[in-house]
Amino acid sequence: MTWQPCDDTARKVSPTEVSLTPDPPVIGGSAQFDIIANSEEDIIKSGTVDITISFAGVDIFSKSDDLCDKAACPILKGPTKVTLVELLPPIAPPGDYGLKLVAKGSDSSELLCLLVNFELVMPEGGEAVDALRVTVSGKEGFSTSA
Fold first, then answer.
1. C-alpha–C-alpha distance, residues 87 and 135, integer Å
2. Which is nearest to 35 in space by CA: 119, 94, 113?
3. Whole-model pTM?
4. CA atoms of 7 and 109, how far apart (whole Å)
5. What confidence score (pLDDT) does residue 44 get?
6. Which residue in 45, 35, 48 sits closest to 84, CA to CA?
7. How many domains would you assign to the chain?
8. Is residue 145 part of a domain?
Protein backbone atom coordinates (compact mmCIF):
# COMPACT_ATOMS: atom_id res chain seq x y z
CA MET A 1 0.00 0.00 0.00
CA THR A 2 1.25 3.44 -0.91
CA TRP A 3 -0.32 6.86 -0.48
CA GLN A 4 0.21 10.48 -1.42
CA PRO A 5 -1.66 13.78 -1.40
CA CYS A 6 -3.59 14.36 -4.64
CA ASP A 7 -1.35 17.29 -5.60
CA ASP A 8 0.73 20.12 -4.13
CA THR A 9 -2.26 22.35 -3.36
CA ALA A 10 -2.30 23.57 0.25
CA ARG A 11 -5.45 22.46 2.07
CA LYS A 12 -6.75 22.98 5.61
CA VAL A 13 -6.09 19.32 6.49
CA SER A 14 -2.81 17.59 5.53
CA PRO A 15 -2.35 13.81 5.72
CA THR A 16 0.67 12.64 7.71
CA GLU A 17 0.10 8.88 7.94
CA VAL A 18 -2.13 6.26 6.28
CA SER A 19 -2.54 2.65 7.31
CA LEU A 20 -4.55 -0.21 5.82
CA THR A 21 -5.78 -3.22 7.81
CA PRO A 22 -5.35 -5.91 6.67
CA ASP A 23 -2.60 -5.10 4.21
CA PRO A 24 -3.24 -6.44 1.67
CA PRO A 25 -7.03 -6.64 1.99
CA VAL A 26 -8.76 -9.89 1.02
CA ILE A 27 -11.60 -10.30 -1.48
CA GLY A 28 -14.90 -10.73 0.39
CA GLY A 29 -13.49 -9.22 3.60
CA SER A 30 -13.29 -5.68 4.87
CA ALA A 31 -10.59 -3.06 4.57
CA GLN A 32 -9.99 -0.34 7.14
CA PHE A 33 -8.16 2.81 6.07
CA ASP A 34 -6.93 4.95 8.98
CA ILE A 35 -5.78 8.42 7.97
CA ILE A 36 -3.92 10.59 10.45
CA ALA A 37 -3.92 14.23 9.38
CA ASN A 38 -3.09 17.64 10.73
CA SER A 39 -5.79 20.31 10.72
CA GLU A 40 -4.64 23.91 10.31
CA GLU A 41 -7.87 25.26 11.83
CA ASP A 42 -10.49 24.22 14.35
CA ILE A 43 -13.54 25.39 12.43
CA ILE A 44 -14.50 22.19 10.66
CA LYS A 45 -17.90 21.24 12.07
CA SER A 46 -19.43 19.35 9.17
CA GLY A 47 -18.78 18.18 5.64
CA THR A 48 -18.61 15.19 3.35
CA VAL A 49 -16.12 12.49 2.42
CA ASP A 50 -16.22 11.48 -1.25
CA ILE A 51 -14.62 8.13 -2.05
CA THR A 52 -13.82 6.80 -5.52
CA ILE A 53 -12.38 3.32 -6.11
CA SER A 54 -10.63 2.49 -9.37
CA PHE A 55 -9.41 -0.78 -10.89
CA ALA A 56 -6.94 -0.78 -13.78
CA GLY A 57 -7.32 3.00 -13.99
CA VAL A 58 -11.11 2.91 -14.40
CA ASP A 59 -13.45 4.27 -11.72
CA ILE A 60 -15.68 1.39 -10.59
CA PHE A 61 -17.31 2.64 -7.38
CA SER A 62 -18.00 5.93 -5.67
CA LYS A 63 -19.92 7.12 -2.65
CA SER A 64 -20.27 10.09 -0.37
CA ASP A 65 -20.50 9.95 3.43
CA ASP A 66 -20.91 12.46 6.23
CA LEU A 67 -17.46 13.60 7.39
CA CYS A 68 -18.55 13.42 11.02
CA ASP A 69 -19.36 9.70 10.59
CA LYS A 70 -15.69 9.13 9.66
CA ALA A 71 -13.97 11.59 12.03
CA ALA A 72 -14.70 13.17 15.40
CA CYS A 73 -16.43 16.51 14.82
CA PRO A 74 -15.76 19.28 15.29
CA ILE A 75 -12.29 18.76 13.86
CA LEU A 76 -9.99 20.89 15.96
CA LYS A 77 -6.60 22.37 15.08
CA GLY A 78 -3.92 19.70 15.36
CA PRO A 79 -3.89 15.95 14.68
CA THR A 80 -7.10 14.20 13.72
CA LYS A 81 -8.05 10.74 12.50
CA VAL A 82 -10.35 9.76 9.63
CA THR A 83 -11.41 6.10 9.48
CA LEU A 84 -12.99 4.35 6.50
CA VAL A 85 -14.18 0.76 6.66
CA GLU A 86 -15.19 -0.74 3.34
CA LEU A 87 -16.69 -4.19 2.74
CA LEU A 88 -15.10 -5.76 -0.31
CA PRO A 89 -17.36 -7.71 -2.67
CA PRO A 90 -16.67 -11.44 -2.95
CA ILE A 91 -16.72 -11.18 -6.74
CA ALA A 92 -14.05 -8.45 -7.01
CA PRO A 93 -11.08 -9.49 -9.11
CA PRO A 94 -7.66 -9.57 -7.47
CA GLY A 95 -5.24 -6.87 -8.55
CA ASP A 96 -4.16 -3.28 -8.06
CA TYR A 97 -6.75 -0.75 -6.94
CA GLY A 98 -6.79 2.96 -6.24
CA LEU A 99 -8.78 4.92 -3.69
CA LYS A 100 -9.29 8.67 -3.95
CA LEU A 101 -10.61 10.38 -0.84
CA VAL A 102 -11.76 14.00 -0.93
CA ALA A 103 -13.05 15.58 2.28
CA LYS A 104 -15.07 18.77 1.84
CA GLY A 105 -16.34 21.32 4.32
CA SER A 106 -19.96 22.40 4.59
CA ASP A 107 -19.17 25.17 2.08
CA SER A 108 -17.88 22.51 -0.41
CA SER A 109 -14.27 23.70 -0.03
CA GLU A 110 -11.72 20.88 -0.29
CA LEU A 111 -10.24 20.12 3.14
CA LEU A 112 -8.22 17.00 2.27
CA CYS A 113 -7.39 15.06 -0.88
CA LEU A 114 -5.59 11.73 -0.74
CA LEU A 115 -4.68 8.94 -3.17
CA VAL A 116 -4.11 5.39 -1.89
CA ASN A 117 -2.89 2.50 -4.05
CA PHE A 118 -3.39 -1.01 -2.73
CA GLU A 119 -3.56 -4.62 -3.85
CA LEU A 120 -6.61 -6.81 -3.35
CA VAL A 121 -5.79 -10.51 -2.95
CA MET A 122 -7.66 -13.80 -3.06
CA PRO A 123 -8.48 -15.42 0.28
CA GLU A 124 -6.59 -18.54 1.24
CA GLY A 125 -8.29 -21.89 0.62
CA GLY A 126 -11.96 -22.00 -0.30
CA GLU A 127 -13.02 -18.79 1.43
CA ALA A 128 -13.76 -17.04 -1.89
CA VAL A 129 -16.07 -19.85 -2.99
CA ASP A 130 -17.79 -19.87 0.41
CA ALA A 131 -18.26 -16.09 0.27
CA LEU A 132 -19.80 -16.37 -3.19
CA ARG A 133 -22.15 -19.12 -1.98
CA VAL A 134 -23.37 -16.86 0.82
CA THR A 135 -23.87 -14.03 -1.69
CA VAL A 136 -26.15 -16.11 -3.91
CA SER A 137 -28.15 -17.18 -0.85
CA GLY A 138 -27.81 -20.92 -1.20
CA LYS A 139 -28.97 -21.09 -4.82
CA GLU A 140 -26.29 -23.63 -5.68
CA GLY A 141 -26.85 -26.56 -8.03
CA PHE A 142 -28.97 -24.78 -10.61
CA SER A 143 -30.61 -27.17 -13.04
CA THR A 144 -31.43 -26.52 -16.67
CA SER A 145 -34.23 -29.10 -16.62
CA ALA A 146 -37.81 -27.87 -16.32
1. 13
2. 113
3. 0.82
4. 15
5. 78
6. 35
7. 1
8. no
